[in-house]
Amino acid sequence: MISTEARGDIAVVRLDRPERRNALVPEQMQALVETLRRVGPACAAVVLTASGPTFCPGADLKWLTSFGDPALGVAELVAVHHLAIATLLELPVPLIAAINGAVAGGGLGLALAADYRLAATSASFTAAYFRLGLTLDGGSSLFLARTIGAARTMELLLTNRRVLADEALALGLVNEVVDDAELLERATAFAAGLLRVPAATLLSTRHLLDLNGIRNQLQLESVAIRTAAKQPYFRAALAAFLDSQVRPAPAVGD
To answer: In this structure, what CATH number is given to the domain that contains residue 170?
Structure first.
């Protein structure tokens, strides 16, 4: 579910569940946490990317429907997803996101938690939450609001429109747009060229830039999304999704 590759002293960490388009399940997020804790202290920087043409479309809806009460699945997934976000933010080395394709729902938090973000030209960003009657999670309520503003964040939620790579660059969601074939090379080259700073300096600086308090926000998000998942709208939206399912690997953001 998670694979790693060393490129010199850069650790490339991949979401590696391409048969489900890297859609989120708890085991995958737990594996990500364990991998980051293992490789983070031993490398100069981490590049987070994914296998296949999709970065992460959010929660695996097929997995959620395996629960008699899918709200229980949401609660289980959010807990470990938020642990993964916190672990990304606690890395003692710079975190670079190489966003190789579509991102939606909970995948936004994984991408936006990075210190620097590169997007492939094929990348796109979709909020996806309101389609299921859910609130934001994975830190996205804070990451999006401080990057593009509350009004634009609400627009993306209400319209559920896709933001393509060039617009994401203009909005400040990503720092660079790179040809798909060059994405990983550029990401690792950028990571290799970064200043080597003490872990305490990096972590303190992240804390200084975190003006609204991401850990408190993760707790607020957890309560909000678990409450939303208990509403009849969410169960009905999941059922409607299954009724209209036409592709083999559905997930939030399809």
So the answer is: 3.90.226.10
Query: Which domain, by its residues, includes 100?
Result: 2-180+199-243
The angle that helices 70-89 and 26-39 make with each other, rounded to 10 degrees, is 10
Q: Which residue has the tokens 């999006």?
A: 144
Q: Tell me the two tokens of residue 184.
A: 């990983």
- Cα separation, 254 vs 249, in Å, equals 9
Total of domains in the chain: 1
- What does the pLDDT look like over 21-35, one tens digit per residue? 999 999 999 999 999
For residue 132, being part of any structural domain is answered with yes
Q: Token pair for residue 81?
A: 């997803």
DSSP letters along 73-133, please?
HHHHHHHHHHHHHHHHHT-SS-EEEEE-SEEETTHHHHHHTSSEEEEETT-EEE--TGGGT
